[in-house]
Every structure is written in C-alpha cells, then in structure tokens.
Amino acid sequence: METKPKPRVLSGMRPTGALHLGHLTGALDNWVRLQDAYDCFYSVVDYHALTTEYEDPSAIRQNVIEVTLDWLAAGIDPAKSHVFIQSLVPEHAELHLLLSMTTPVSWLERVPTYKDVQANMAHRDLATYGFLGYPLLQTADIVIYKANAVPVGEDQAPHIEISREIVRRFNNFYGEVFPEPQTLLTPVPRTPGTDGRKMSKSYGNAIYLKDADTEIRSKLKTMVTDPARQRKTDKGDPAKCPVFDLHKAFSTQETRDWAAAGCTSASIGCIECKSKLADHVIARIAPMREKREYLAARPDTVMDVLKTGSASARAVAQATMHEVRQAMKIEY
C-alpha cells in the first residue's frame, strides 16, 4: 500500500547570534512538534542576513553555527527535518532573480515591514534592492520546495500573503508551477524581556538558551513587574506583570496558580515569585544547554549536519528549478 506523502513546511531564521527564550516559545517549540506531521525544511537564511548586514558580514558564519546549535539542542532532528544553510542551495538566488522579472515594485514597497524596519534601523543605509526585494527572496525560499504551508505568528501573515500573490502572477504567465503556500497560523505567546518589552537581542533584555543557571537567576531578579507593587504588601495584578507572562510559558499550572494568588493577595513578594520562575526556566533550559555545549565542542559534527541537510534540500530545489526553466522556455 502506497504511503501518502506528508505535507511540507518551510521556515527559517536569520543568523543573528545565539537564540533566546522568545525564539523557543515563538518558533522552536512549534517546529519540533511539526516534525512528526510534516516534511520540514528549516533553513538558516544567511542571504537574508546580508540585506541588513552587508557592510560587515564577518559575524554571519559563526552566527550560522550558533543558530544551528540552538536548533539541535531544542529538539530539531536532522533525521526528521532538512536542516540547511540557504546559501548552500544557490537555486534560491536563481529563483529570486526569476521571480523579480514578474513582480511589480509597488508590491514590494507596500509590505508592512519595509518602511518600519528602515525607520527602526535609520543608522544603516537600507535603500538597496536587496532589502526591497526581501519578500521575493522569502517567496523563493518557500516555493522552491513547493511548501504547502509556512508556520508563522499572526503578525507575519502579510508576508505569506504577498508570496501567494507573487505565485499567482508567476503561474498566470507560465502555468501552474507552484502551489500557493498557506499560512499555518500558530499561537505565539507573549515573551517579554527583562525590561517588559518584547524579548530581543537588540534591546539587551534577553535570556539566552545558552545562559548559565546563575545568569538566568541574575537576569530574572532584575525583571520589571506590575508597577503597582512597590512594596511586598502592595497587591498586584498578574495580567499586568511581565514575570507572570513568563510563568505562563514555563511554569506548571500549580506554580502559576500559586503566583497569581500570591500576587493578588500580596502574600508573596516579587523576588520570591521570580525565584520560582527561575527554577522552572532552568529546569527547561538546562538539558538543552548541556546538549548545546556537547555539540559546540564538536563543530565538525554541526557542519556535517548542515552540509548533509543542504545537499538533500538542494536536490529538491534543483528539481523545482528544472520545472521553472521549462515553464519559462529557458531550459537549454
């Protein structure tokens, strides 16, 4: 009896350095779950990193390793998923170029993050085609594997919609080459950093997956809480407390109930609440950190995983590009 192939998903991360708790709750936990139900392609998108880091790309190579270490430590399994480096599959760049021939500039200029990122990174010159064409490269990343779906949070859904538009236009010119990728919406819990804002390396408020136990406790000890709790005797509101948001992501139901009751009744102090949170974060992170350290001491093993995954991904990409060139009448 013939086995029905699994549906396929594609996702990736820019190599900007070691990953933090926000990456774990916002993406990696879901990626690990998807491995059993989908044919997963997970890419470290180093070409994308160049759209903003083109002036000094010296850190990208090591950051590729850092990201991969965290993926493997979190449970991404190379035996179940294609784990690869974007630039080791040069067909991504070829398809990006071919898609650029049919995509109106106005479509790229209206992408919600285009002007937002430029404003937030005003210290860098992002008036380049590479940055403008980011959605095209992202579309190439997805459709070169004919991915059925892309796992994203709700805020990223517009990026998948423009990919669908680009695919429709391409298929209209050349025939049904690509399926339109679907948005696989995943609930992304709010993961605040130590200052209460979204956890981010650029904000300096992150707790990293490789942080030592003492470092985790030290960072959490300084974390902001409900501003109404100036003293231990002040009653608080867990819904307004970033610490409680992390409890929801990492603590057991018993501990969450304890923290909520203690906060609203002022029967526990914030330091006590943070200490209990640290226990749960450490319990979750420690085994991952141990695996990460083991792999970090064996960089050749990590690179072998990436090269093997890139070779298997490239075989799929090459087959797709053969179809693309045939459809466009440029297969010589």
Secondary-structure blueprint of this entry?
Blueprint: E1 8-13, H1 21-34, E2 39-44, H2 46-53, H3 60-74, E3 81-85, H4 91-100, H5 105-109, H6 112-120, H7 129-132, H8 134-143, E4 149-152, H9 157-174, E5 182-185, H10 213-221, H11 242-250, H12 253-265, H13 270-296, H14 299-327
Parallel strand pairs: 1-2, 2-3, 4-5
Explained architecture:
With 332 residues, the chain is mainly α. It contains 14 helices and 5 strands. The protein has helices at 21-34, 46-53, 60-74, 91-100, 105-109, 112-120, 129-132, 134-143, 157-174, 213-221, 242-250, 253-265, 270-296, 299-327, and strands spanning 8-13, 39-44, 81-85, 149-152, 182-185. The protein has a 3-stranded parallel beta sheet. The chain has a two-stranded parallel ribbon with strand order 4-5. Helix 11 packs across helix 13. The chain is elongated, with a radius of gyration of 22 Å. It starts with 7 loop residues before the first strand and ends in a 5-residue tail after the last helix. 37% of the residues are buried. The model has no long low-confidence stretch (mean pLDDT 94).
User: What can be said about the biggest beta sheet?
Assistant: 3 strands, parallel
Mean pLDDT: 94
**What letter string, H or E per element, gives the SSE order?**
EHEHHEHHHHHEHEHHHHH
Provide the β-strand percentage band.
Answer: 5-15%
Major beta sheet, strand line-up: 1-2-3
**What best-fitting shape do the alpha-carbon axes yield?**
elongated
| Rg, alpha carbons | 22 Å
How does the helix and strand content classify structurally? mainly alpha
How many beta-strand elements?
A: 5
Termini separation comes to 39 Å
Low-pLDDT ranges: none
Number of helices: 14
